[in-house]
Design a protein that fits this description.
The protein is of the alpha/beta class. The protein folds into three domains: about 5-275, Divalent-metal-dependent TIM barrel enzymes (TIM Barrel, Alpha-Beta Barrel), CATH 3.20.20.150; about 290-420, 2,3-Dihydroxybiphenyl 1,2-Dioxygenase, domain 1 (Roll), CATH 3.10.180; about 435-615, 2,3-Dihydroxybiphenyl 1,2-Dioxygenase, domain 1. It is built from 21 helices and 26 strands. The strands form three sheets. A nine-stranded mixed β-sheet has the order 14-15-16-13-9-12-11-10-17, sandwiched between helices. A hairpin with a 5-residue loop joins strand 15 (about 395) and strand 16 (about 400-405). Helix 5 packs across helix 6 and helix 9 crosses helix 11. It starts with a strand and ends in a 7-residue tail after the last helix. The structure holds 3,4-dihydroxybenzoic acid (DHB) and magnesium ion (MG). Magnesium ion binds next to loops. It catalyses: 3-dehydroshikimate = 3,4-dihydroxybenzoate + H2O.
Length: about 625
Amino acid sequence: MTFKTSIATVSISGALSDKLRAIAEAGYGGAEIFENDLLSAPESAREIGAMMRELGVECTMFQPFRDLEGLPDDLRARAFERMKRKFEVMEQLGTDLVLLCSNCSPHAMDDRQRMLDDLHELGEMAAAHGKRVGYEALAWGRHVADHRDSWALVRDVDHPAIGLVLDGFHSLARRIPSASIGDIRPEKLFIVQVADAPMLDMDYLNWSRHFRCMPGQGDFPLAEWAAAIARTGYDGWWSLEIFNDRFRASSAHQVARDGHRSLRLLEDQAARLLKRPSPMPPRIAPKGVEFIEFAASHEEAEDFARVFRALGFAPVGRHRSKDVTRWAQGQINLVVNSEPEGLAHSFDMVHGGSVCAIGLAVPDQQAALDRAQALDIPRFAQPVGPDEWEIPSLRGVGGSLLYLVDADTRAAMWADEFPRAVEPAPAKPLLSRVDHIAQTMQYEEMLSWLLYYHALLDVKKTPQLEIADPMGLVYSQAVETADGALRFTLNGSMAVQSLSSRFIQAYFGAGVQHIAFASEDVFATAQAAADAGLPMLDIGPNYYEDLEAKYALDPDLLARMERLNILYDRDGDAEYFQFYTRAVAKRVFFEVVERRGYDGYGAVNAPIRLNAQAKYRDPLV
Ligand SMILES: O=C(O)c1ccc(O)c(O)c1
Ligand SMILES: [Mg+2]
């Protein structure tokens, strides 16, 4: 099952000609021309049409046309005249299809027979011009706001030039059951428009015009909806129509590429529901983090070494030919790369000591690569030395790498590449595994990376949270496997002085801002780290007074928490303990967590942490 992909030009930023180039480059077969984009373009409709043919992008539709059916006589004549003029524009663009939105005008009459008559006459006029009209129920339409009503009109008009446009946003925002799509005859479905959205409690118009997003980025049950459409036998265009303020502030190429990826994901999900063959292997089920690689100069490597030691890591191996050290304890591997060339070195030159790669433990390397390729996720390759084991990798957040490590690779990697033992692994580790990795990015990029992880990996998304930084709001959202073996949190902020934004400025881009390790005994870990002189993030006494008031914790426990700067959250009977280190070189910092049945990330404590970190902020310049 393969979708024919299209996108409405309104979905991306820039001038119309730039949009069309980005659309062609991302691999779409078609584009809907949004009228406002044409009105503001310096090129004529004929020139745009020629440009589209040259780019190999079919003009799938011209849109929107508003307010025609069910008007009083005087307005009606004007609307028909307007439509006739648009047929000329469509001729020049090279499309035969125009979208008619259900009438939103206060003059529209609730007179079904009149609407049928108008649509019939419109069909006659369109046919005479060799054109077709697709009728779409807007969720806020005055008398037609439900695809079951727009379909009933189209069905009853029964004119070959009048068909239906389905738009997932309007149907799913109104929670119309997708089973109702089964009544629609596929030859009457002229085009399908695709959009996801977060579940919000707001009016349809503003929700639609500002918060639409791509399949996989929102909360709508789009896979079931798409499967219901495919089941009718529909084999036309699947056209993204995304009104979103964030996307209009982003790179056209990035948004066009993400949109194409989102349609591939939707096609895959629908095929699986329908038990039809999908063009790609299923989502990858990662088993956890195999390693985290840091790029660091020798001096920075010493800074990291001090922190790693204090947290209980030992340098267990040296790379056999490269300036790379493996630190380990429990199931955690941290690799510090100080090579004078290669990706890690470039990373260090740009960002300073930082995380340049993450190794994901995956069950099947080839399946992961095939899925990434089908989703147009670029691979990364750099020269490998003789006898060196090549670990395939994908480009991830901020140009960092996501290595795909399966069982064979893992055995070869540690045994063959790091044969030189330095010190034995700690017998009694303070930390057991990587709990989560927090990546910070531009606010506009967050949905892009959410889609990346969600499309590639079998992860679910948590709802987006708003966290109060003393200098502005930070948005945070996690992707995690069902068993919690892999967790990423994505963070972004529009406030220029929030910690997230300052990270991006100081770091020159998006990247890993902190890493949380799991401990089975957070108190022992905190005590050992404090004894080793690790600079901790100090939490003030008010926080502990409040904890006492809220939870009536044992006073001894509370006193120990205060002494060791341990934060706390509770969810039912489940408990969460966490503490933070100071940032290394003002960039990456570390967290230690102990989960006692707790599944979240201590969001209530995030403002406390951010306030504590703001103390170290450089003064406003
Ligand atoms: O918001 C609108 O006006 C609008 C216009 C055209 C569409 O296809 C649509 O879904 C919404
Ligand atoms: Mg629409």
